[in-house]
Amino acid sequence: MPLHQKYPRWVMLFLAVALIPAAAYPAWRHLYPVLASEGWDYRVFRTDIERVSALARDARGELFISREFADGQGDILKLGASGHLETVLSGLSKPDGLALYRDALVVGQEGGRQPVLLLRGANSEALFDSDSVEGIASDGRYLYAIEDKLQGRLLRYEPATGEVVTLREGLDRGEAITACADGRLFYTEKKHGWVKQWRAGGEDRLVQAGLNEPGFLLCSDEGLWITEDATHMARVLLLDPAGQLQVVLDHLRSVQTIIAWTPGHYLLAEQGRNRILELSRLPNGS
Sorted alphabetically, which InterPro entries does this protein's record hold (predicted)? Predict the structure, then answer.
């Protein structure tokens, strides 16, 4: 029997009105504009880059962009001075980590057992075998990689010898890694919602907890940047040198990489909206 015959009209009207908030809340989360905190602003830098994920800027100012498609469909794009996007490497499986090392680009692949690659010009080569590598970082001497899997590892690669050392194992969905200029090394475990500092001689230090799927880290002069890879209500956070956590951007969708662009400016990959944002500190913090 149709519902309109089984129940009185007033009951159907009540049910319809009651369901409006339930339907409106997901739409609100999806459509609500990004909010910048006081002292910051943003603009859309580039749109229509499906599955945009990792970003890296080389010494010539060229921007490299990964598109995180699986099963050999992922690729690396380069943004030219004219604004044209050129494919420089294809056939990848979820390329989700980029790092500059000397004059080359290092590429990690999250899509299962895939090699970490070195791209120099038009030529690529395998550096070492890996499994579900998400984050890639370099301190100028070593390369670091973290595996996004159950019982994942934090790895250090010595390019001069080809040796791969396991710094930590048994991680739960390791997502991000960053190497600071002063030698500190930070990483995230997305499942636990925390950031830790790796310590060579003892237990790693818990730096920040209670995060909503932390997805990327960047160590800069301003502090430790943290992005959240949540589908809705994701944030860009800055843990300043005094240990204060600031929300810089809010109401984002699946935030990935943040990189320094020009002084006071950062580029941010917002995968959930297929775009790159430019984040800017306002003059005098106003």
Answer: 6-blade_b-propeller_TolB-like (IPR011042)
Quote the CA–CA distance of 41 and 59 in Å, as a whole number. Answer: 26
Give the pLDDT score at 284.
Answer: 75
- Residue 83 has what pLDDT? 87
Kindly tell me if the per-residue pLDDT of 29 is higher than 90: no
Phi then psi dihedrals of residue 255, to 5 deg: -75, 140
Contact 101, 138 (CB under 8 A): yes
C-alpha to C-alpha distances, 112 to 2, 59, 138, 237, nearest whole angstrom:
49, 31, 22, 29
More confident residue, 238 or 172: 238
Please name the fold of domain 33-285. Neuraminidase (2.120.10)
For 27, residues 6+ apart whose C-beta sits below 8 A from its C-beta are: none
Q: Is there a contact between 53 and 34 (Cβ–Cβ < 8 Å)?
A: no
Residue 58 pLDDT > 60, yes or no? Answer: yes
pLDDT tens-digit series, residues 207-239: 999 999 999 999 999 999 999 999 999 999 999
171 with 180: CB under 8 angstroms? Answer: no
- Tokens representing 187 are 């990483």
Q: How far apart are CA 75 and CA 86, in angstroms?
A: 10
Residues 6+ positions from 12 with CB-CB distance below 8 Å: 3, 4
What single-letter DSSP state applies at residue 203? Answer: P
Who wins on pLDDT, 283 or 109? 109
Classify 21 as helix, strand or coil.
helix
Q: What is the pTM of this model?
A: 0.88
- Report how far residue 219's alpha carbon sits from residue 239's, in angstroms, rounded to the nearest whole number: 10
Q: Where are the domains of the chain?
A: 33-285
φ and ψ at 59, to 5 degrees?
-65, -20
For the chain, helix, strand, coil in percent to 5 are 10, 55, 35
Q: Which residues of 16-35 are buried (b: 16+ CB within 10 A; e: fewer)?
A: eeeeeeeeeeeeeeeeeebe
